[in-house]
Amino acid sequence: MQVGINKSNMSTIISPSLLSANFLNLSKDIKIVNRSEADWLHIDVMDGVFVPNISYGMPIISQIKSVSTKPLDVHLMIVQPERFIETFHKIGADILTVHIEGAINLHSTLQRIKSLGMKAGVALTPHSPINMLDDILQDIDVVLIMGVDPGFGGQSFIPHTIEKVKKLKDMILRKQVATLIEVDGGVNFETGKQLVEAGTDILVTGSFFFNSPDPITTIHKLKSL
Ligand code: DX5
Ligand code: ZN
Predict the structure, then answer these.
(1) Ligand number with the minimum distance to the CA of 51
(2) pLDDT tens-digit profile of 103-120?
(3) For the chain, which end, N or C, has fewer CB atoms within 10 Å of the first or last residue's CB respectively?
(4) pTM assigned to the model
């Protein structure tokens, strides 16, 4: 699948996270996302080592792929993610994001992801400073800034995230690169609006989307913040 990654000037890219879906009825929830104006489907992979939680793995993701009409935005919260690049490509990842804190030889990892036709993402946990990206930004399609400590949905947004987005936006403009900014964790209408004003291109929404009374309208509103 060719992923449209260029954000139009009109609307924010929205990537609903399946972590807050009903796991006993995943296809129903994926079809809600299919019917919505969401752009991507966010898949959180956890190994119980990089984060204190375990989510789902390859067999479930390949079945998700068979139902989803949206590109899969796969967020790897695992140690040594370079071990699984080919596997995630095979099961249908369109955007593959690794954490800077868990990756060794990040440059080669990003090149391998891109050589397979996927978009390459790098995620930063709340305590990792933006300047860690200074010598690698030109190789990254998407920087994912965590708005909460990774591992669980439904946590409160860390307000300092807004400053990190502004710093990253400045770095992107200064270096004249096309990298997009994605924020994951604690996104709702209020934090989403502040994030978009600070320069965020992509909003991940988990519990806010799945707990909302009308998820399809929620996506519509998030897109036009
Ligand atoms: C957390 C995950 C997020 C999570 C976001 O580790 O990376 O994608 O699902 O959930 P909310 O939107 O509820 O904070
Ligand atoms: Zn995520």
Answers:
(1) 1
(2) 899 999 999 999 999 999
(3) N
(4) 0.96
